[in-house]
Prior knowledge:
This protein has 638 residues and is an alpha+beta fold. The chain has a domain at 1-242 and 272-404 and 577-584 and 615-627. The protein is built from 15 helices and 40 strands. Helix 12 crosses helix 13 (484-490). The longest helix is centred in the last third of the chain and has 15 residues, at 465-479. The protein is elongated. Residues 1-36, 38-63, 105-109 and 615-626 have low confidence and may be disordered.
Amino acid sequence: MKSWNYLLIGIFxxxxxxxxxxxxxxxxxxxxxxxxxxxxMSVGVSLPSARGSRSETKPGGGSTSGTEVGKDYENTxxxxxxxxxxxxxxxxxxSLVEGLNTQNRTVISTTAKFDRxxxxxxxxxxxxxxxxxxxxxxxxxxNPTTELVxxxxxxxxxxxxxxxxxxxxxxLEGTATQNTNIWKSGSFLMSNASIAEKTIPSTFQEWVVKHxxxxxxxxxxxxxNGGIDNGGAIPVERSVARFDFKxxxxxxxxxxxxxxxxxAGTMKVKLVRMGLVNMSNEFFYLRRVSPNGTTTNSSLxxxxxxxxxxxxxxxxxxxxxxxxxxxxxxxxKNHFNFCLFDDNGKINDNTxxxxxxxxxxxxxxxxxxxxxxxxxxxxxxxxxxxxxxxIPGDNNHQKSGISTGVVFKGKLEAGDGLQTKHADLYAAxxxxxxxxxxxxxxTYTVGGAQYPILFEYKGTVYVGWNNEVVKxxxxxxxxxxxxxxxxxAMEANENGNPNELYxxxxxxxxxxxxxxxxxxxxxxxTTAGFTLYQASDDGDGITGDAHDGVGYYFYYYYWNRHxxxxxxxxxxxxxxxxxxxxxxxxxxxxxxxxxxxxxxxxDPDPExxxxxxxxxxxxxxxxxxxxxxxxxxxxxxx
Length: 638
């Protein structure tokens, strides 16, 4: 049997009442009025080894590749918030233990102070439990946020109705920041992975008689000298997920050969940048699951399976929002950091500035994390941490506007044999293009060099319009009157005749009407099914950052997979989503074609938000275990 590596937090508490002894116990009614005596918990922390063994997934669910125990700084506990409640989650008391530091230490101990009156309030005036119910729940929050601590400081056992469990953590990253320390090195936020229900003494007097000294604590996670046996540790899980990335290209230089037929390998795509998009800005402090991903019939801290859904705070918005409507699209910024789209559902250069962008070379220079599961998977690098973002069923709501994803920026490069087979394309890629004598065409200047528009139509790339598209269309039409290329390029559609509008663009070059002519041509050409690629400078808008120069750039969109059903085109429960305490190991393993154009108006099928994805006196003891990260290996093909 495989063994677990846990972060074990042992909490010990036993009762001792100020001003009284075991020989002369004081009754509840004598103590309570005006009393504010404290009770304390002694806390011990046991840390896992960085080279510990691995295990099967617990709590489990989904298509996983094993587990990863985590780095020391992902397991460290510096503060611990303990909350005791009734079995219906109504608040009883809490305590915050600060000043812990488990880094590079096997065990650390400290003491937590409780208000003893709150424990006494759990019992009736005679010191008995109403209805004989001697069960409580224990919730543990490692490295809690300030707002969470303040919430409990404002609670009391009389006014609380148990709805505190619905408290959400707001995370803002960008121009405004909030709670970004939940993944701070050495201080990751963690909370219960399952409900911890424990048994306590049936009478308050029993605390006094049996647990009145620090040497005889009442065990919340163990056997009380043959009496109440409270079992084992409380499992906790990290509240965030982690994205790792490796270079999955065959040549390990972020470069992929593309092309079909005899042109296979004549073009290459090099991935140069990646950006996080649609990171949720809110999640429940305590995870819950339900049959359909909504709060209806949800179960707190219950097990995730292949059939149920992890519930998000904005499940109702995701379930009902019509992402074809401008009003709903404009609301996306209220739910996500790094929105993929602007308020109009478009992507442009300004929109890209709101993504969380990185150069791939920088990501691949981050810390490696290779030791996971029972196998060694080399070359993964820790990229960044992300918040939980899940989508409710019936599987029709997993869409581009609300799914957490990664955008990859690619650059077109010349492959083997391109200079010989397609000299014009080779020249265009290298910035040395010039129209042949007697030919006219539309070119534009970027970085001091002339570049033509590249046109992709049904898998074939053409350089320029007059030089390549028209010539090829006329050749096809001569042998096949039904040539789709000819009809698309040379005949009018609802937005005009692409060929005629292109000739108008050539004539307008250098005049005040150039931009209007280009806009009209783009619309007619994309309506006919052409994808247009225009060169640009990767360094535009970047100050003091390395970049990849001038070239033809495009984008690939990846929506993070949680439970891959391995059925392309058919979405399953929780197939797309991001769930806490999971490591998503990403690698682009294949690219088949050019991506989406940099300019949305050049794209016949632009990404849009509605596109589907595929204690003074009383002592208790309890222990908390940090479960290993659940690893999900996602190989990405474009």
